[in-house]
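Q: Predict the bound structure with guanine.
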Amino acid sequence: MNREVVKAFYGSFFHAPVYGEFEFLEFALIEVNDKGYIERVVKRNDPEQPSLLREYRDQNILVELGFDRYGLPGFVDIHVHAPQWPQASLALDEPLYLWLEQRTFPLESKFKDLEFSRKVYEHLVEQLIARGSTTTVYLGSAHLESSIQLAQICSDKGQRALVGKTVMDDPNANPDYYRDASAAQAVVDTETLIHEVEDIGRSSWAGVWPVITPRFVPSCTDEVLKGLGDLAAETGAYIQTHCNEGQWEHDVVYERFGKTDPYVLYDFGLVNERSIMAHCPYLTEEEGELFAKVGAVIAHCPMANSYFSSAVAPIARFRRQGIRVGIGTDISGGYSPSMYENIRQAVLVSRLLETGVDAMLPEDRRGGLGNNTRVSLVDAFWMATAGGGEALGLPVGTFEPGRAFDLQVIDTKLPDSNLTGFGVFNSPADRLARILYLSTPENIRQIYCQGKLVRDKDAT
Ligand code: GUN
Ligand code: FE
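A: Predicted complex:
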């Protein structure tokens, strides 16, 4: 026996190691070591499998998923505004600048109160885990303390997390009651966040990392953008921001700099292989080439784009350009904390981009770009798992040796959410489609992060 194996999982698993493809591991045995990484995947036809199963059963370290249950990799959600959780689903008919001014800034300002922020953040992290998200990239509020608190909560609850303190220092763009005291203070606070979160990361099981987080160009002074760019160069920390999100933001930035977001951010040292750029529906071919060249990542937030961008991000083109792309729920620009919902929306909006939407116009004048814009369900599944791992440079998102074992167990046979079909159309692809399109949080029974059980809905 392999002495490193401390837990083994037997059942049927779906994953997508390659963009555009999925693999069905039917009746496979996955061995997990004492650090929570996958040692080996023993497939059904491996002659060793029966004896290993016996051995692990005897040792009492075998978890059997059971019939009608399937394992999926834990999701990687690469863009979430943690302090916006209390307003998820509210005010989405407003344009971005009003939504920020009237709702978001007043709400986020409340996270000065650490008791309030603890209540919200604990609830949010639990809700995300319950929906299968084992890795999440968070933007905190502009407050240092509550952002550090968020990192600690993720670590305590066993979720792998990247956490930033949002920087918004420009007195002309942000309300007096909610902004950084100065550019210098924002940079110092970000530096403190980096040290503190790295500290939490050292004792966390699945890992917690700091993120340099200028909110977006319009809310930041040149001085702070430069300071954060310098800090990125010094520390090599992750960076996240909103980029090319909407027409208003695009115009404001162009008026100020005579160039667009990607070049402004790049010139301040904020676009590199550790950068997560949220949204990007306005990203041109040329800007996309820059991202591909430096290795910057795009966080595709299909729900939020439908509300705030007046556009659909051309994800298929980004992939053809060689850009890394993951999916973000963008709570609360997107209302749903579920990556399942966002996988579905990623597929749906790509179809609107394909055809255009005004049926009163002739087919060839509806603004559709043709069928090389499609994001298939499997493409979106990849982005939510392996693509997210690739985006963050972390070994997560597939069931392959050397990857962290992040698992969600889907029960397809619940009385009120039965995904088993009627004995027709039951290929692995069909089964995966039913799971991705139809499952509810109820169907997700167990969630493991880095080999540890972080939620068991069958336990009570
Ligand atoms: N741009 C600046 N701040 C935000 C935010 O909180 N949400 C979204 N969607 N876009 C932004
Ligand atoms: Fe966002």
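A: DSSP finds 15 helices and 18 strands in the chain.
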